[in-house]
Structure formats: C-alpha cells, structure tokens
Amino acid sequence: MAKLTEKEQAGYDILRAEMPDDLAMEIVEFRREKKAKITARIAKALLKQYKAFGNVEEAATIHMVRNWVGFEAEWVKPKGRTFHDSNNPMPLKTPANYGPAEVVSPPEPMSEEERARRSEMAARARAAIARAVH
After folding, report:
1. How far, in Å, CA of 32 to CA of 69, rounded?
2. Looking at per-residue confidence, does 96 or 45 come out higher?
3. What is the mean pLDDT of the chain?
4. According to the 3-state scheme, what is the secondary structure of the chain?
C-alpha cells in the first residue's frame, strides 16, 4: 500500500466505506497516476455517481477500464427507448396510448359450408386469372 497524503487518506476512507478496500486503493492510485487529486469531496462525488449507476463496484471498474479521470453515470447507462423524434408524428407504442394487451382466443374451427364456400371462391379466382393470362 502506497503512503497516502492526508487528503488522499480522507478520500480513501470515504471510498472504502462503500466498497472493498483493495478497490478503494486502486481508485486512489489510479487518480494519482492520472495526476488527479482525490479528496473527501471528490470521493463523495465519485460515490454519488457510482451509486447513480446502480452498482458501485461495477461503476468503479468501468471508470478505470475506460481510463477516465471522472465518472458520470449517464455516460454508461443504456439510453433505452426514451428517444423521440419530433419530426415523426407516430407516438411510441406504450400501454398509455394503445391500451393494455388483450388475450386473443384461438379462432373457432371452420364449418363444412364455410370450407366449401372458400374452396369455390379460390377456384373462381384461379379461373379468372387463367382467363386473364391467356
């Protein structure tokens, strides 16, 4: 463990309260390598963004893997389906404007009369097409 200054120790103590000690030390050393100070105020701001991301350890890992000095949760949170094109008049399909999904029952079996009627209509359509082609 590297010798920490008084301000770095204060930042480290705040980070270590919310994450494993080794990860907190990695963040302090990472910021030291980037020539970016770590103080109590900076540690609180980082933790706030890590918590906004939803998983403190994962956010801290992303922060260091991407080699960023700072971290904002919105930089890595998925955008989702919030995009809305003001030039497109169609609204997003949501239960609010389309209603709840309804259960559709399977169709009833076809009667013999209906089956015969449809077969006759199909035969007439084929005959009409054959006459038009020739």
Report:
1. 10
2. 45
3. 85
4. CCCCCHHHHHHHHHHHCCCCHHHHHHHHHHHHHCCCCCCHHHHHHHHHHHHHHCCHHHHHHHHHHCCCCCCCHHHCCCCCCCCCCCCCCCCCCCHHHHCCCCCCCCCCCCCHHHHHHHHHHHHHHHHHHHHHHC
pLDDT tens for each residue of 104-122: 777 788 899 999 999 999 9
Contact 40, 19 (CB under 8 A): no
Q: How many CA atoms lie within 13 A of 10 on its CB side?
A: 9
User: Which residues have C-beta within 8 Å of that of residue 79, sequence separation ≥ 6?
Assistant: none
Q: How far apart are CA 43 and CA 24, in angstroms?
A: 10
For 1-41, the pLDDT digits (tens) are 568 889 999 999 999 999 999 999 999 999 999 999 999 99
